[in-house]
Amino acid sequence: MDYRAAEQFLNSFIMHCATEGLRFHIHYWGVMEKHYDNLVHKHSFYEICYVLRGSGEYEEDGKANKLVDGTLFLSRPGIAHQIRSSDGMAMMYVAFELNEATSERDSYDVYSERLLRAERIVRYNVEELPSALYWRALAAQASLQPVNNVEWIRQSCGVLLTSLADVFSSGAEGNMRDWHPSSSLAIRIVIQAKHFIRDNIASPLSLQDVAQYLHLSERHLSRLFKQHSEHTFSGFVKQERIRAASELLVATSMSIKDIAEATGFQSVHYFTKVFSEEKGRPPGLYRKEPHP
Fold it and tell me: Pfam families attached here (predicted)?
């Protein structure tokens, strides 16, 4: 990897990025083959560093932490710190802050809480963690100076910054044996499942079918819906079938039978039963009512 080219590209093109509910402003990127000592200093923003190779120390408020190959460490706003290395470390880092005005309130609060209250600011043996794999891949891609792919890389950087918060969350461990899918990754799986359900609403859409499409176990997909959605899997499928049917009833002249088939109901009788339970009146009556 061309360290200098990667750093130049990121600092030229990727100074802001976003992901679901979060907007980041990036102050600078670092991609260095040899990082030595710096002065004791503070930031008004977050800085996260990834040691690729080499050794040194990270001192924060007088406490020294050993740095070795495959270490991630976090510097938080207003806290004095220093990086030291006599031989130099191959290291990447990013300095950033959240845009409070344009981020969703709940997402902003959760993300900030994870970083500000991180119990362990240094994580070891991170080479196989998704965040570390992603960061290395991004740097390698940036080193190729891919001007035509700026937007893709910007989106990827939003995913990277979101995932890094989970690395330092309370209870997170810096090795693969103890790692569990981050909440940001879990949310993305649920979002992907919801898109698949909406786009294939006429299909049976069993839990087994959707889990197979996502390469997950049925149990795991069901658990993700319970943890990261206001509906269970079956509840969401039913909601989307009813939503799609309601739109077709209002916007088209399709028969009730055709609408039932188009939205995945097994029969007109079952469609009418479920629709009436959800909407408080049968499909035919719903269609006759005025709608905005």
Answer: AraC_binding, HTH_18
